Amino acid sequence: MDESLEIRNALEAGRLEEALKRYEEYHMGLLVKPLQSEVHLVVGEAYQNQGEVSRAIEAYNRFLRLGRRHSQTGEVNYRLGFIYSRILRDYSKAKRYLHAALRFHPVEAKRNEVEKELNAVNDYLERVFIPSEEDVDIGEAYAVIRQTEEQIDISQVGRLMAKARGVPLAEATGDLRRSRGILVEELEGSRAVGLARELQAVGIPVLVVKRKDLISLPKPQATTSADFDAGGLRFQVGQQVITRRWEDVFLVSGARVEMERRERIIEQGPRRYGMVGRLPVQYYDGKRVRYKSVKEREVVVDFFMLEPWSSYRLRQRHFNTTLARKRLGDKAPANFLSAVREILKFGHGLAMSKGMLLMGRKATSQEWREATFRSLQEFENHSWWLLQLEEYGAL
Prior knowledge:
The protein contains 15 helices and 13 strands. The protein is α+β, with helices and mostly antiparallel strands. The strands form 4 sheets. The protein has a 5-stranded mixed β-sheet.
C-alpha cells in the first residue's frame, strides 16, 4: 500500500500511534517513496492536538516546502503563526507566518481571524519590543523587565545596571537581589533601551515597557475561608462571602513565605529560700513575661481578579474550611493544601506561579528554593513581576 495512504487511513481510523510511527520511519529513511503534502498537514495537526509543538512545526514546514501553491498553504501559515504567538511567544516569527497566511488564505472569514491575530502580535511588539533610541518618548520613564527566572550572574548584571542607573555597584546588586524580575522600574528611555540591549547580549531576555503601563499591585483582602468548585470561587472576607467566576481570575500566585511573629513566653522568677515556722521552704519570686521573634514558613496564595481589579489572600495559618463544609459536609477538603489542590483542579488553564504547581505534587526541597521568599514584601514583588509577564504575554 502507498505510504501516504497508509498513514492517512491510520489517522482516520483513530490509530494515531501507528500513523505517527510510520511518519517517523519515513523521516528516518526507512520509507523510500515521498509522502504527499497533505500527509504532512494531517500529521502536523495530530502532533499539535497532542501538544507536541516542535514536531507539529516540523511537519507543517515540510508541507510548506512541498505545497507552496496548495489550497491549505494559508491555513498552515496561520497555524504556525498561532503556535509561535500563543504557545512559544516568539512574536517575530509569528508575524512572518501570519503575514504569509494573509497572502495565501482564500477564505474571507478566516482572513479576518488571521488579521485579528496579527493585530494582537503587532500590538504586543509595539508595547514591549526593544525600540531604538530614536523611537522612545522624550521625558517618558521606562521599566526593564526580565522574561525568565533563570539563574543569572549577579555581579555581571549588577555592573550593567549600575552603569545604566548611575548608582554604586553595591546599591545596584542589592536592588537586583530584591527585585524578583523587574530589574529597573523607572529609567530614562535611551538608557532603558541601552540596558535592555546589553542584557540581551549576555543572554537575558527582557521587555521594555513604559512605567505608566505597568499593572498596579492591588492591596490584598485577607480571607479566613474559601471554597472552590467548577462553578467558581467563594471567599470569606470578614462577615461577607464574595463569589467570583474562574473567568475573572487574571493570575494565581502562591509560594512559601517566611513569616515573623512575636511569641509570648512566661518565665518563673528567681528561686527564693525562706522559713515557714521552723520548716525551710523554697519558692519562686513571681512570674516574668518576655517576647521573642519566631520565624516560620507558611504557604500564601494570592488571587488577582479582573473587574474590579482586586486581590484575595489565603494564608495557611489563618485558613479554615468553613465554606467548603457548608457545601460538602464531611467531604470538604481536610486542610489548606487540600484546598489548594482544588484550585489546581478547577482552575486548570489559568495563569499560575511556579509555587502553585509545586503544591500540586511532592516537590523536592531544591525545587521549593525557587518558590520560597524571606518576607511578604519579597513575595509581593515576585507577584507584581508575574502580573507584568501575564499582561504582556510572556508568562
